[in-house]
Amino acid sequence: MEEVSDDAYMKAVEKFKDPDWREIFINMSTIRKRAWIQSNQMDDSSSSSADSDFNDFSDFLMLNFLSDYNEKFIEKIPQRTSSLCGEDFEYIKDTREIKVEEAVAIFLIIVGQNVGMRLIADRFQHSLETIDRHFHLTLKAICKLGQDIIRPTQSSLPSHIVNSSKYYPRVDAQIPPRENMGNCIGAIDGTHVSACVLTDKQVSYRGRKNVVTQNVLCACNFEIFFTFVSVGWEGTANDSRVFIDAITQPKYKFPLPKEGEYYVLDSGFPCTKGFLPPYRGERYHLQEYNSGRNRPRGMKELFNYRHSSLRNVIERCFGVLKARFPILKMMPPYKLSRQPLIVIACCTLHNFIHQRTQYEHMFREWEEKELEGEDNLEEANTSVSRCEVNLSDESAAAMARCRDRIAQAMWTTYNNIN
Fold first, then answer.
1. Mean pLDDT within 116-132
2. How many other C-beta atoms are found inside a 10 Å radius of the C-beta of residue 207?
3. Residue 256 C-beta-side C-alpha neighbours within 13 Å
4. Are residues 257 and 358 in the same domain?
């Protein structure tokens, strides 16, 4: 604005004194404003001085447009560049002691590096009470954000599943088109996260490894996004019990599969409509098939091998999550009510980071890894629309028949190719 001459500035001030003119001009679109500047004369005089004044006034208006744009969209205060900005998505606000950016930085350092509150207080020069209070406020805000981004997406299946005859058996296998591994929408599994509880409550939180943990049930899709998270269970809770509670209790809002779709899960979960476990008593884990001599010897082993390759995505999700947030491996002595919220917040940040950095190095590093959960290994060796959950024997038998048809079609195609 400093480049505008005093004459042009005063001319603009005089022009804007007229309220009718101001209202008309402000309501014009940017294109109409520019056209008006180019087609209208400021004075009736056609002298060269009038043309010069008009050009100066035009420059003034154009600089005014640029200044308004810069103030509204580039240097806005407070700056909100996320698509979730606005009054309807105002999860956290500045306080008298700490601004939003500083509060988020404090939270990320604590969960991302597992740094103690006292070190954070010294680093940011705030009291312990201020750090703890803003950590809790940020924790609740991120959990609230999780209600929007931890949910099923409408994205299509990855090409390596859709274009593979492993998961889409050929037509000559005589399998109904909606009964194949391509109708799998994700994987479900449980994992153990570190917990810190009082001594008199540790018995129910100690698993077979004598470690105090909490049991977390998660579902994910094949793009390594969490679509469901259930927290708050003791480490001794059985995965099947946590799973049944999650899909039958409406308060959890579990994203049940549509007709013909299903999740893959391990043999520790029940076989029922929409949830497909592997065959029990057969080889299952990927490392059991890695050697060239350990090829599948029947349709059940072939099904288990391909089932395991699909379910492996949930293990990669857990691997990225725990590698990025070490607080999940060694939980500080927070209140027991706060610890499950930390797990939800970490899953929320996992999805948020993956949405905005599709090729982030940690996701690339874990993308091709073939992992198996430690909890599932022992179990196997020993052995977005809502609908009603059917856990009856008839439902289990129907899903078992569907599994047999898929396995038979896979085995037929496998033999034809080999």
1. 93
2. 15
3. 19
4. yes
Classify residue 19: in a domain, yes or no.
yes
Given strand 262-264, what is the order of strands in its sheet? Answer: 226-234, 213-220, 184-194, 262-264, 275-276
In a domain, 1, yes or no: no
- Asked if residues 54 and 41 have their Cβ atoms less than 8 Å apart, the reply is yes
Task: Give the pLDDT score at 163.
Answer: 58
Q: Domain span at residue 45?
A: 6-74
> Out of 6-15, 95-104, 145-154, 268-277, which region has the weakest mean confidence (pLDDT)?
6-15
Q: What is the structure's pLDDT at 212?
A: 92
Write down the residue that tokens 């604590």 correspond to: 110
pTM of the model: 0.69
Residues 187 and 101 in one domain: no
What secondary structure does DSSP assign to 221-269, as a single string?
-TTS-EEEEEEEEETTS-HHHHHHHHHH-GGG------TT-EEE--TTS
